[in-house]
Fold this sequence. Notes:
Residues 39-247 form the HpcH/HpaI aldolase/citrate lyase domain. InterPro entries: Aldolase/citrate-lyase_domain, HpcH-HpaI_aldolase, Pyrv/PenolPyrv_kinase-like_dom, Pyrv_kinase-like_dom_sf. The chain is α/β, with parallel strands linked by helices. The chain has a single domain, classed as Alpha-Beta Barrel (TIM Barrel). The chain has helices spanning 6-12, 27-36, 53-66, 82-90, 104-114, 129-132, 137-143, 157-161, 163-167, 179-185, 197-213, 224-232, 243-259, 279-282; strands spanning 17-22, 41-45, 72-76, 95-98, 149-154, 174-177, 217-221, 237-242. The chain has an 8-stranded parallel barrel, surrounded by 7 helices. The longest helix has 17 residues, at 197-213. It is globular and about 60 Å long.
Amino acid sequence: MLRTNKTLELIRQGSPAVGTWLQLHSVPATRLLVAQGAFRWMLVDFEHTPVDHATASNIFGAISDLSAGEVTPVARVAAGTVDHIKHALDAGAQGVIVPMVNSAEEAADAVRFARFPPHGERGGGGMLPHVGFGVNAPDYIAQANDEILVGVQIETAQGVANIKEILAVEGIDLVFIGPNDLHLSLGLPAKFWSPEPAFQEAVRTVTEACREHGVPYGTLCRDSASVRDRIDDGFSFVGLASDLHFLLTKAGEEYGALHGMTEPASTWCNMVNLDRLPDSLRGLPRS
């Protein structure tokens, strides 16, 4: 029997599913994160990081196999085209999030390309996707439409304006608010979250429409406190930072403590200091 998509099951019930972003594309690092048992889903970012499909396939397999289906491998594709969605799903993703969805037509394309006939146009020649669900290829093709998560990312003023038309598209499992790009689209500095009135109004417009249509909604957060706040706000698919964030933040905290440095205003993750080291890093005074 096809394994159920645990993340999809949770968000359909209105329960929170907390996951994380994968930006480093390290199979060993992914395996170690999966083994900690802390996340319900782990997302490979095809849109903004350099990952090839072979590496992504190994990562998706590591997630689904090591967790025995308890952790959902997800892809944020580069665009909502048939080739991007097809390649991600055939590589073993069990859900796709499509960025920059601005219209009902774009949302309908995302659903169509992610579903097998008669509900879509996805081809059935994938070599590996059935393995992550623990079944053979024919059974996967027959049942996968019910277990593949299809999310549309709302991150522009246009997408917010068209949210009711977008949500009228049958087959959308999730609306994902992209906070950084939504800020930019509204003429604001990119941030994970902010009290800016224009941003808050856009979020309210999207989340209220989602509640009216019974569609779960999600976003990405920088830290655990923000995750708790978003869950309190009704978000169910919530991302906690990324493997890159964990690496740079922990490194910054440790060498910051060693050298008496405070976290930069732009965070440890955004600190770049290639020209020269501050005096505090040239050597440590002996006690």
